[in-house]
Automatic annotation (TrEMBL):
One of its GO terms (biological process) is translation. This is Small ribosomal subunit protein bS16. Signal peptide: none annotated. It comes from Scrofimicrobium canadense. GO terms for cellular component: cytoplasm; small ribosomal subunit. The gene is rpsP.
Length: 154
């Protein structure tokens, strides 16, 4: 029997939630499973991954093959590294929401600074254009008044 570690889809239509399960490869995607070893919720930011490491290592040890997606999840949790003999493997899922919030705040501040620079540049160009138009209008009025004075003086 070929055993796979794969995802079983749960949740609503536009709100998926997955269970990480061990199943016979011939069974349906959401069919009967041998064991549930974790969950994966992709909707929150950052997504939530909970896998029972000891059970995942057991199933990998007895020959269960993870699907591509589950393999990526196991890499993130550090279970694949532990299975390959790296006992000091650290989970890559150490990025916290605080770090992401700080990064998002910095990105927003950078975007606002760029917008302010753009607004200032636009306002400066607009002021130069208006000053040039006023100067041109004043020159035209002076030329018209000189022409009118010459006609009156004749």
């Amino acid at each position: 029997m070929a055993v796979r570690i794969r995802l079983k889809r749960m949740g609503k239509i536009h709100a998926p939630f997955y269970r990480v399960v061990v199943v016979d490869s011939r069974k349906k995607r959401d069919g009967r499973v041998i064991e549930e070893i974790g969950t994966y919720d992709p909707m929150p930011n950052p997504s939530k991954i909970h896998i029972e490491s000891d059970r995942a290592l057991y199933w990998l040890g007895v020959g269960a093959q993870p699907s591509d997606t589950v393999r990526k999840l196991l890499v993130l949790t550090g279970d694949i590294a532990r299975f390959n003999g790296k006992e000091d493997a650290v989970s890559r899922v150490e990025i916290s929401e605080v770090d992401r919030a700080a990064a998002a705040k910095e990105a927003i501040e950078a975007a606002e600074a760029t917008a302010e620079k753009s607004k200032a540049k636009f306002a400066e160009e607009k002021a130069k254009t208006e000053a040039a138009e006023k100067a041109e209008a004043a020159t035209d009025e002076a030329a018209e008044s000189d022409a009118a004075a010459e006609e009156a003086g004749e």
